[in-house]
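Limitations
The structure tokens in this dataset are predictions for the assembled complex, not deposited experimental models. Users should treat interface geometry with appropriate caution, especially where small molecules or nucleic acid strands are included. An illustrative entry is reproduced here so readers can see what is and is not provided.
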Amino acid sequence: MKKQSPDNSARSRRAGLILSLSALALILLLLFLPLMRASTTVYSKKSANTFVGDEKYLAVRAEVEAAAAAYGDVTITEDVTLREKSDGTQSSMVAFSAAVARGLNAPRLLKSGLPSGLLPPALLLCAALCLLLSLARPRWAQSLGVGFGILSLLCVPAFAMLTTRVFARTIGAVLSGARQADISAYLSAADRLLYDGQAGENIRSLLGGMQFRYTPWLWALLPACFALLCGALLIMNARLGSALGRGALYAFIIALCVIILYPYYVMFITGLRTPAETNDMYFLHMLPVRWMWSNFRDIIDRGVLRYLGNSLLLSLGATGVSLACGIPAAYAMARMRFRGKKAFLGFVIMSQMFAPVVLLVGISQLMNFLRLNDTVVGLMLINAAFNQAFAIWLLRGTFVSISSEMEQAACIDGCTTFGALVRVLLPMAAPGIVTTLIFVFINAWNEYTISTVLISTASKKPITVGITQFSSFNMIEWHYLFASALLATIPVVILFLCIEKHLVAGLTSGGVKG
Amino acid sequence: MDTILVRRKWEPYLWLLPSLILMTVFVVFPILIVFKLSFSEISRAGTVGGFVGLNNFKAAVQDKAFGTVMKNTAVWVVSVVGISTLLGFIIAMALNSEFRGRKIARSIVVFPWATSLVIQASAWNYIIKYEYGNLNNVLLNLGILKNAVNWRASYQIEFAWECGVGIFVTIPFVTFCVLAGLQSIDAAYYEAATVDGAGFWKKLRHVTLPLVRPSLTVSTVLNIIYVFNSFPIVYTITKGAPANKTDTMVTLLYMRAFYDQQKGPATAMSVIGFVILCIVAGVYMIMSMRGEEDL
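Predicted assembly:
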């Protein structure tokens, strides 16, 4: 990196200060704008045989206006349905509905006393602290400042979720009878906030029909907070290009992680929902109303433990066979010269070309012939065979990366080739072997296609096939499906995380350096 | 390359033997069986009759779904491999730079690789449901959407989603292959380029890309094979419906072999698929490995 002149540094420090200050001002401004809008139909009436503009229409409209007048600012919408009768005359129906819409900004929310009202000021506080601390000299204060900047970023979605929680989850759940709790404090707060305290006894029915939407202003807070963070980084590091680049890099990485984790979030919350919730068309809560940990008990009653056991057996067996065959082959490929080495490598690559799916017909015939159809052992061997290529590839790479001097010394001392492999090379290659082992294990664990064809007895199914029992043709039990998917996924993800570091090394030494 | 002394000439073959036996029995035999079956008459009950020449191939090509399925397969392989290679490359570049939390980010990127395809596909199948799917749920809750959107309004859109899920699960593999390549690049190259006044793009074109190319080749060839043979995503999300319009070659041959009891045409399709795969992967490998002595 090039050192910048002090003059240059002062200039970009100033730029950072301007950026942060304007971001702070923008945040402050945004907090006074309506961040969300709650609309409630307070009165609705359908009037048959009414044409727009006739006497009846005017009367009904006046009635609706009068009924809604107490709520102050009301919008009345009309929905006209025209229909041709059989005798050729027209009939018309007008549906009136009077809605109260309230844009809610931060001061109003704070005044209402609802718990989420505290977050906008918290956001402002974090943002101000971020700016203040990044101006400070000591390193720890600057780090703290960046921490507050990130907190202010997080405040926006937290605010959105907490508000939904209060309205949709707590109040909604009590109103629909799903939960017992004392919410009278919330109710009166919501009344003051949304209906100017006019609702009184009607508050329950009004809230039940309330629609609750965020406005884009809320999401405009996110870029504002982000600009603040960039500004703070700029003040601290005083390098314009790198601060913006860093900011963009972090934004990209965060967005990436959110997208990648999204299906796992879906599995988690859906696996813990009630069946009614998973299939509810109007279901609008981001988290389960009731966390159904009992789903796990139910799926265990339906044999999921057995499937997991089968998967474990199958994967351990496949890993064992694959390594037992793969280690000697990889050893020969890495350490010995012989004719046909290239041919064997070609053969290994060829076997990669054929995925089991394409060969399913052949495999099922072969299994019938070997009497291995519908057995876990058969699956084990197939998985081992189709993972040979990767096992040999990864192991060979590991062996090649280790110098053969020690083995040569061992051979001179009278050790056999086999002895040299077991006593000298294998201990040194342990990380690579563990990587290969886990890799094959995961592949076998996640395998689905061959198992669906080869296994027909329910008690022999591995978990990937077992979970499909929750999705029959006309009904899918999503909550059970995802609860078992969680059980099947978590162990292998953890295993994979263990080898992640070695995987990059393994891929390099195996494939690229040769 | 380091080698060790081998006393007997046949010893290396002994070391290869277990692997060779395993692969011969469980990979080569099924291949031979499939080739043999593709030229044999197979009754609906599954009994194998005599040699029928190219009848099975004729039946496979005349299958009314064959044309659409070939087109779908081409779209599927090209879009999934192409886009995931591009995105995987960008992500690998990002993950290769120094930043706080890099380890966590890398661990998260590996997640889709570690998850079974059926499970990923089931999750996405639920996410994009119109009536109760989670995507609508989240977007409505966050105020991004005003009304629920039908994310699977037509089969073309459903197929696009399937491609998207394919890309999603393929990215980690590409990312890690490229990352492996990037980490083996000597920092001195970049320093030299910086001294010569090269900017970001110049460095990318003249240093990074040529040096990462071997890793990219390996990951692309393997991906072409994996993606072509990928079965669970399409099978879980649409099962090829409506009327095989979202099928790829692999799902179609599975359906023909195990649901419609047409094992003959199905094996012929396997052979056709294999030949296409060999040609595509071979051409790609030759094109990108030209002049490079690997191994």
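Some entries come with short summary sentences. For this one: The longest strand of chain A covers residues 90-104.
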